[in-house]
Amino acid sequence: MSNILIVMSAADVWERADGTAYPTGYWAEELAAPHERFVRAGHTVDFASPGGVLQPLDRHSADPAIAGENCAHYVAHAQKALGEFGPLLPLEDVDASAYDAIFLPGGHGPVVDLFEDRDLGRLLIAADHRNTVIGAVCHGPAALLSAVDDNGRWAFEGRRIAAFTNEEEELFGTADNAPWLQADRLAEQGARLEKGAPYEPFVVQDGNLFTGQNPASSGPLADAVNERLEELRTSRGR
Fold this sequence. Notes:
- 33% of the residues lie in helices and 17% in strands.
- The protein is α/β, with parallel strands linked by helices.
- The chain has a single domain (3-237), classed as 3-Layer(aba) Sandwich (Rossmann fold), CATH 3.40.50.880.
- Strands 5-4-1-6-7-11-10 form a 7-stranded mixed sheet, sandwiched between helices. Strands 2-3 form a two-stranded antiparallel ribbon.
- Helix 1 crosses helix 3 and helix 1 (28-40) packs parallel to helix 7.
- The two termini are 16 Å apart.
- One of its GO terms (biological process) is methylglyoxal catabolic process to D-lactate via S-lactoyl-glutathione.
- This is Type 1 glutamine amidotransferase domain-containing protein.
- Keywords: Glutamine amidotransferase, Lyase, Stress response, Transferase.
- InterPro entries: Class_I_gatase-like, DJ-1/PfpI, Prot/Nucl_acid_deglycase.
């Protein structure tokens, strides 16, 4: 089957516009639901981050009042998967050619470090050139901003993308004091943003790029990635 790389942020704090610190980490559903579905489909999954640092759990994603009644399952699965994998791969050591898909979960971490991580940018540009499947959910699409080539061109300019919206950021209570908003920055760089209803599943495919709007989109996005990987496997087998 396929090899999939999940790239996590290494950030545990999001510095707000007024200088205050907002604790962050990986969002359990956005990591666990895709991982669970990838493994169930028979794929091998690796984890990587800047410096190989293991990001903590975003505690909001463990609160049923915020993350829904299934959040305990996602937390347990994520912690088990990460524990069994062991030390994360440092992004600087990752070879894009080793993977059939790269997946970028959210939490606010990607707007702290991944959006400007040069190693991730190199990896994404190489993956896109190879037509590797690239998936990103919620704040994960901010990580796509790192893919700027030596001529200053963003690799995903003009692509159709779903991402956590300004409206959802406002509803979550983190918009007013944000240093910048993901949806605005993506649009400024030339993304063609598409959106569904707040906090409802919404997935967009543009070629090899698959994006989901929010945590509820994590599972459907993983299903779309799995379907594409199966299509590619079948076509190669003919």
